[in-house]
Structures are given as structure tokens and as C-alpha cells.
Amino acid sequence: MSEIHKVMSNRKVAIPSYYKMEQIDSALLLEPPIGVTLGMPVESLLAPSRRCRSTHPRRHLNPFILFRRNFVALLAAHPVHPKMGPFEVTRRSANEWRNAPPVVKEYFQMLSGEANKRHAINYPPFMYAPRKRRITKSAFAANMDRKRKVSIGLFKWRNI
């Protein structure tokens, strides 16, 4: 059973087991459970991306991103791996993630918690603040053109 039930204020609240990060042994991070195959060492999985051009710190790695990184490493290690673009790799890894057993998801959730701790140590003042996307002139023009076509269609429909 992957959930621990805890009684709080006379009601049961389900707490997933991966939130008990303090009780996780570091040996479990290094030795994955049965059913989890790693394509690279855990330290490489948890390391930040080397392709970052910006000086701004990136967000910590979530479980799916870690799973996808491992998926790419497993594909590269396979003797006959098909040439796939990033979109196809993401699509296939997402399908594998959806069909993965709970043990695999809990392990990558645990790795994500460790990555989050390391991120907090490396970038203590970091706070994720998403920015609103700016609309480019071409996107604005395309949106106005679409609205214009709809309004012309309504005008024709009313005058029939």
C-alpha cells in the first residue's frame, strides 16, 4: 500500500508515501527498486542541464522530466535505437509514463524530491514566477483576422 493514513482533527487524510522524504534512505536513491531500470547514474539524472544559456536558474526537475531523461538514456544505450526527434521522444516517454507501474512513479517522485532539495541548496532565493506571454504582431494580426471573418459571417447570416 503506497499511502499512509493519518488522523488529523478526527478525519482521515491520505498522505502519499513519497512525502515522507525524511525517512528515505540514501541507499534507496542509489539502488532503484525492482522494476525500475536506470539508463544513467542517479547523480547524472539529478544534475542540472548543461545546455542552459541563460544565467537565470532553471526550475527544479519534476518526476516526468527525470523519467524522460532516463528514457532518452535508455534509448541511446539500446544497440538499435531509432532516430527520433524531440517531439517523438516526448510522446513515447509520456505514453510509457502513463502506463508505468506505481513503483516507477514513486521512485521518480522521490528523485524529484531530492532534486528539489538540491535546487533549494544551490539557489536559495529562487522563486518561480511565470511571466505572461507577450502576443507578437503576427499572432495579434491572425487573431484579428479570425475575429473579422467571424463577424462578417454573422453579418451575412443576419441579412439573408
UniProtKB/TrEMBL annotation:
Residues 57-127 bind DNA. SUPFAM superfamilies: HMG-box (SSF47095). InterPro entries: HMG_box_dom (IPR009071), HMG_box_dom_sf (IPR036910). GO terms for molecular function: DNA binding. Coiled coil: none annotated. The keyword Nucleus applies. The keyword DNA-binding applies. PROSITE patterns: HMG_BOX_2. GO terms for cellular component: nucleus. Residues 57-127 form the HMG box domain. Keywords: DNA-binding, Nucleus. This is 7925_t:CDS:1. It comes from Paraglomus brasilianum.
